Amino acid sequence: MLELRHLCKTLPGTPPRVLFDRLSLRVDSGECVAIVGESGVGKSTLLNCIAGLEPIDGGEIQVGPSRVDRLDDDTMARLRRSHFGFVFQAFHILPHLNLLQNVALPLWLLREPEGSAAGRARTMLERVGLGGRAEDPPQQLSGGELQRVAIARALVHRPHLVLADEPTGNLDPERASGVLDLLLGQIRDSRAAGVLVTHSRTAAARADRVLELRADGLHDITRRV
Amino acid sequence: MREGRISAARTVRPSRGGFWLRGLPVVLLLLAMLLGIGAQAQDELSSYPPVVPGRALVFPQDFGAHPDYRTEWWYITGWLRDAEGVERGFQLTFFRVRTRIGEDNPSRFAPRQLVLAHAAIADPATGRLRHAERSGRAYPGLVEAQEGRTEVRVDDWFLSGGEALDASYHSRIQAADFGFELAFAPDRAPVLNGKAGFSQKAPDPLNSSYYYSRPQLAVSGTLRLDGAEVAVSGHAWLDHEWSSEILPEGARGWDWIGINLHDGGGLMGFQMRDGEGRAIWGAGTLSDPQGESTVLGPGDVRFTPVRRWRSPRTGIEYPVEWTLALGDGRRFRLQPLMDDQELDSRASTGAIYWEGAVRLFALEDAGGEASEREVGQGYLEMTGYAERLRM
Amino acid sequence: MSPSLRRVFLASLLRRRLATALSLLAIALGVALGLAVQLIHAAALDEFGRGMRLLAGEADLQLVGPRDGFDEAVFAQLAARPEVAVASPVLELEVRLPGRDDSLRILGVDLFRVLRVQPGLVPLAERAGDEDGRFAALQADNVFLTDEARVRLSQPHRGMDGAPQPPALEQGKLRVQSGVRGFSLELAGRVPGAAGVLGVMDIAGAQQRFGRVGVLSRVDLKLADGLSPAAGIATLSPLLPPGLALREPEAAAQEVGTLSRAYRVNLTMLAAIALLTGGFLVFSTQLLSVARRRREFALLRALGLERRELMHGLLAEGAAVGMVGGVFGVALGHALAAGAFRLVGGDLGAGFFRGLAPALQFDAGLSFGYLLLGVFAGVAGTWLPARAASRVPPARALRAGEGERAGLPQAQLRTRHAVAMLALAGVACTLPALGGIPVGGYAAVMFVLGGTVLGLPALARAALPLLRRGRGVTWRLAHARLSATPGQAVVAGAGVIASVALAVSMAIMVSSFRVSVDEWLAQVLPADLYVRASSSSGSGYLDPEALAEIAAIKGVDKVDTTRLVNLRLSDEEPLFSVLARPAQGNWGLPLVSGSMSPVEHVDSLPPIWVSEAAADRHDLQRGSRFELPLGGRVQAFAVAGVWRDYARQHGAALIESGDYVRLTGDERINDAALRVAPGTPPAAVAEALRARFGAEHITIALPGEIRALSLEIFDRTFLITYLMEAVAVLIGLFGIATTFAALATTRQGEFGMLRHLGFTRAEVGRLIAVEGALTAGMGVLAGLLAGGAIAWVLIEIINRQSFHWSMDVAVPWGALALFAVTLVVLAALVARLAGRHAMQRSAVLAVKADW
Predict the structure, then answer these.
(1) How far C363 CA sits from the closest chain A CA (Å)?
(2) Whether the Cβ atoms of residue B238 and residue B213 lie closer than 8 Å to each other
(3) Structure confidence at residue A93 as a pLDDT band (50, 70, 90)
(4) pLDDT higher than threshold 50 for residue A63
């Protein structure tokens, strides 16, 4: 589903810092890959490059049949809205929309009719355990609940690829575990590919594969965690 | 604007601003600059009635104004004495001028006739003259010179009387630093000057006026100096003169006296001077207590300067003491009440002349010894002593 | 304030430069407009007063009466009084200059009396050296001109139609006109003590040459020593005939001030609304800024900052903005005033101080006052946000997730308050004017504005469901955002409401006024042709002979005449116009009540028709008795009707020509209205008239021309109003801009997330634009409603009480719609521009940054 081939990325500056040098990665549908690494090593940048939000200096990024690195800004945006799902550390749930609307947001973007969008969003909310609170405003929710809404939003439109950047970074360990289970479960259920960036080895351990990003590239450490 | 008036005055030359003797300074300098009684007026001379000999003066009709004639004045000078015996001179003049402007104008403001008034007090305690003036165009009830009797006024300043031959006059003047309200009682009929009131001013009889005098008027009333009002009494001299004529070219100034003699008589005399200060004409009238008068011809009145006084303000030198010789051989000396009776009105009218109270002393040779005796009190007017009218 | 606080608070202003600059600008504009109005008026009044003082010279009192003069008998009476030291009569003439449409003020004076009372008017003969010059001041044909007059009259004049008109003064001769006859006056000299365009001549000459024998227009009195002006008035006033009054010369300026007061207050209120808008803008930006800094404040509070210190710090921010804005405003106000003097003159185009060239003067007190107003606007705008910020519990604000909420100030504005304010507005409308100022009307305007601002959330809640039909995701998002947070609409829209309400109300009012004036003109000008020798109190006039000649011209069917005189009713009503004309005839009379037929049985008094202003002031209706001082005595009339008069806000009355002539003996005519015989072209009659009287001596106008000219003047008068509207709208747009700039900054995370979800940049931009449009749309909608209400207040209360004009409401629907749409589009653009900065930030960083 996702394939990185010889990805190169250099951060500008004096002297320029080489972040990735011919980095390659393949993630299949239904597979969840966790990427760990020290702060500043480029985990998030890698996610952003995959999402087409940050330019790369060389190599190829393929998502399904699309070469992400060759798409222009708007085409990439359209690709994201149909094929990508995102989960952020800071949740980014819109406070002026209720939970249902927040979840339905990607479907709105895809011009899904109001009724079916609401239905799918409701179903999705039920799947994350918030079925009864669809009309509530997000202000009343706890952090863990907010992130569950975010997960529902990330998956409601059946994306092929879900990218999660420190999805449990703002949560306490108990909640984090539940949210992570939910996220991975939902990714697997929807046969999407998942890339999860985290600094938590505990979180990473639940993925199908765990890769550590270092200055010299990605290293599979699945067995070690 | 004041400056405006001054600069207008600068252009006025007394020798040309045709007027005769008495009041020439005021009239000429106060009026001429406003009205320009000048060459243009001369062209229109024909429209003013000529002054001719043989016109009998009729009273009280002739006490009043003669509005057809170009100029006219009532001129009172005299001495006042208060309860403490302090003597002061005073002078009061009302002029009437026919401008020949706006005679066809139905407006009551039409400036056909102007009336101007001038008053001064010679107080030795002040050391110089206090003087003030009023002027205006004739306007019914406010500014007038009426016919038939003496009734002249400029707003609240007035002189009235002369309803009958022996009627009194009454006058009130109020200025900033002085004022007076006086009654003037005659004790005799008017004294006609010249030929029965026809008074020639120059060798050419064209330059003449109708002129009568009222010597020995008994004065009573109140005088205000600054804030203080005192009762006063005294004697005064009234001249009333009207004419249309202009002085000839060449006349520069004149000297005039009007003296109430202690013996009850009166003496009027004047001389006209040319540019070199020589007399070109002179005349006078000597009257006795009954009013019988002797006419003094050009040769009968001779003025000789005795002592000069220089004004500290203007630098002009005036002969403030004179000897006067009459045709009959009598000689007199004129001595001023005070030297500084210069009228410096540069700030208003621009005129500078000397007009003041004088005593008349008879000079007698008693056995080879010269002796003096005060024989009268009156007024002396001297004009044309300024180098030129510069200001 | 401690240095640390300075760094925390004032430095914050520098960080958000755009918002600060815009708030500052808004306050500066409000301050500048208000100050400029005051400065211009003060300078004009000052110049007028100085001119009056100069002309009045040393006079203690002035006798004044009808503009056209009064019988001079009273002069002699006053001059003879012991209380009066000197009385100086003046005949003031507005002398028509043939062939030119400007006129020359000539004062006929008595030289001997001006010397003692008004030295500034003493003429100085120019050719004093030559013999002719000595007669100068008394000669009937001599005129003395100020240097300004000489320059102006020697030059060609640009007529109202733009065509050049000949010089009036050529080769020492001044061409003037009396009646329909032109003649020359000799230029004899200067008036060195006077300023302005002015001539002086002998009073007798003036009376004779201009046909005013026996008439004076003023007598200046110097009182006897020790008599106070008040005592003089008390003693002398009983001697005066009706219609004449004594006043101190200073009072002249006051009277003009009174006449122009309503106009001035109107302009000041407009400026106040601009300032209010500025205050709203400060409110908007501060509220957002405070919301954005909640965590910062919470942290500071946690670190030990006192609540009071926080409040003070925030207020200091507002005060600083207000202060700097005020300083700029004061400078700008002076610049505006200076510019206005050059462009439209000292009366802001209203015609109260015609011909004055006032000089701008710095007024420390006034400037300081307006500076304080600026500071006040800044502090007041900050008050609520500061209070809110200081009350937030620090722990809550420090919680994670608060960042989401930070961008959404929840202004707690109650609908209840809005309703109460609107009710107060209604009550205020019922109040009568206070001293000629419609205080209640202005209060109502303020209440309507306040009520609308407070009621905006409710309005948004009511209106937004109607707009839910949209399908697009941007529309849905924008709609959802606005529905969820109507408070934001208030924050962003408050400025819009104020400015839109102002602009809309003025537009409706001006449009109603203009339409009414146009109709009114059509009604009052029914004849085919109008002939005039000069405007009222001018030296040109038509006399019976001239009228007979006009009537004899071929093609003239009927001639009706108007005589216009201006009376003085009292010190409070120094100007009252009386028109004498046939009630039925070629002159239309736009009655609003009563009828054209006289009232029967009212003591057989002659009929009078009064203008609305007169009816309002004197409480008149059909059948009332009304007295006027005419011809030196009081004459009673019976009111037959009330008519609408847009030409004379000071009040006017119409009486029958016959009655007027019988009462005054004045047979002069200002205007003649001609009905042309059928089949005769009016132009031919006009040609014949010009040939008969000389084209330069009369003005012939067709009703169409008069209407065009009147409307042009009308538009010029409202020029300043348009300018202020534009400024207010500009400020309102600033409000949108600052709000959205601030919001966009706080919503970077949201935009970043949307970009992740697949929004293109353009879509994010569109979202901001749609939000801007929706917010502005709400503001505009509220502004339209408020504007309509305010327009009603303006028309029915403020205009009625200030100017006593009624008018028919005419709403310019098309223009309003265009305006509203333009504003919404502009707001979208402005919001889009303001949000650009936030949009361009990397979506990557945006989702990362929490606050």
Answers:
(1) 52
(2) yes
(3) confident
(4) yes
